Protein 1
Amino acid sequence: MGSSENVKKFTILLVEDNPGDVRLTKEAFKEGRLEIEIHDVGDGIEALDFLEKRNSYSHAPRPDLILLDLNLPRKNGREVLSVIKQNDRLKQIPVVILTTSSAESDIIESYYSFANCFITKPINMDEFIEVAKAIERFWLSTVQLPVKKT
């Protein structure tokens, strides 16, 4: 038996409309130690389609973790978070708000809507890699996540 068979693979749904931030996030997670598959969508409607396996996402995997930007087209991150946390099949998936905002009102509203944590995106690549490593260490290595159900 190869050791690769024992490696746990994690799935992250990245909800981000800025292509530069998508690329930066994917690069930052490549620096980590875990095997992580990142799926990205560019707006809130696509995020909900992915999570509900609708339209072109009928075979989308259930994510272990959602990284959610607040400022999205079509349906913003606040609305997406609200839908996720009110849905019995989705609400146990941890949602990390990863956004450029550091506004106290955004932080309060996110936690009020049951976000699992709130992180303001660093602009510097090295700092961003450190944030990705911290997310990986905590959410994918330290905490116990619920067993995936399809």
Protein 2
Amino acid sequence: MNNALFFSAASEHWATDAKTYAALDAEFHFDFDPCPLRSAEDGLKEPWTGKRVYCNPPYGPKIRAFLERGVDAEVAVFLIPARTDTKWFHEIVLPRAKEIRFVKGRLKFGDAKNSAPFPSMIVVFESTRESST
């Protein structure tokens, strides 16, 4: 068995399947995606304040930067690998997330025929800023 597949990825980008996105959008009503799959835009440069964010960030070194921005948004929902052994999980997700949902089984990203080689989780952040209304 070739274990290299389980510990690396040909790409940092994994397209969200339509069914998963639709279910999350129906619940959270997104108005901003800081890293759409086929965009050269850098969503880390955009303001997140007051937005309802869906983020499936690149699954590499930038993941931490995207997670750190989650607390800026009104609501930020992340689809990320369930890597509970990482510093970003213990330093950002555990202390700041309102909710962590571990996905049962393995997702099929985009229109892939096979499941991902890693488990996934949905992480929800909500703003703690007081409204001025």
Protein 3
Amino acid sequence: MIKIKHLLNEIIENNSIQMIVDRVYPQIVKDLGGQMKPVEVHDNIWKSLDAVGIEDLKREQGNPDARYDPYDDIISLFSEKTYTEEDIIRSLLHEHTHTLQDQKEFKKLYDQGFNYGNHPFEEEAKIAERNWRKYLAT
């Protein structure tokens, strides 16, 4: 019974997130340019990757809010960390900015020693997040 209740809560949360995505993402694309990407909602990155030892992975490697996968061309939001309207909007702005960036250059800069804190493409995505209030429901 507890597992069913958890699953129902997860479905409700993911549907609420998807409603916000459906409302704001088209406007974000219109404002920033580029093309709409599929947006998936998962509990966390590790579950979306069918990883084993999820709790250990969260402790050791973290649990991001969202992710853009340039290979599958999909944005993923992770409901354990991205569940408020602000979180969702900021994540969409951030990840959509990555869809506009040169992915070969993105990887090259990481390979050259840049990290999340100083990578110029991450900085650009963080700046895009600052406009999140523009997309709040009125």
Protein 4
Amino acid sequence: MIVAMAGLPASGKSTVARLLATRLPAVLLDKDAVRGALFPSAEIDYSTAQDDLCVDVMLQVAGHLLRKDAGRVVILDGRPFVRRYQIEAVRRAAAEIGTPLCIIECICSDEVACARLSADVASGAHPAANRDLALHLRMKAQAESIHGPKLVIDTGTMTLGACVDVCLEYLAAWV
């Protein structure tokens, strides 16, 4: 099974994905880590083309892993999946692999996202140097609804443990 973590920057995708990967267990493929492994730091440009390439690599790795072990769970993290073509690419890949696709969309208020982004910028902890409130707002303005089955969790109103518990319950129905 492929689990695609969707949501705007600072919506809690990575935090939920990390704990979910541990609890399942699952393989976690992180777009920022893939980007860092593929490109020298001077060549990282956060362009749509570079994002698409990183996600394509992640889908190829997911396919390789799932063809070896169809019972495995692979979590894709780091892409907001706010554009329809991005979700369609993952749907096509899952269909080609012959594995279920589960989409978990993380949401939170702009105030919560702003606080998270400010903390990340202050600490320098997040690997994506372009991740700020302007990016969050720009992506929000461009976002297209994800149609079809998905779980939506509000990471701003639920504890991390509760978010992961709801995800586990949702994913159990797909196994």
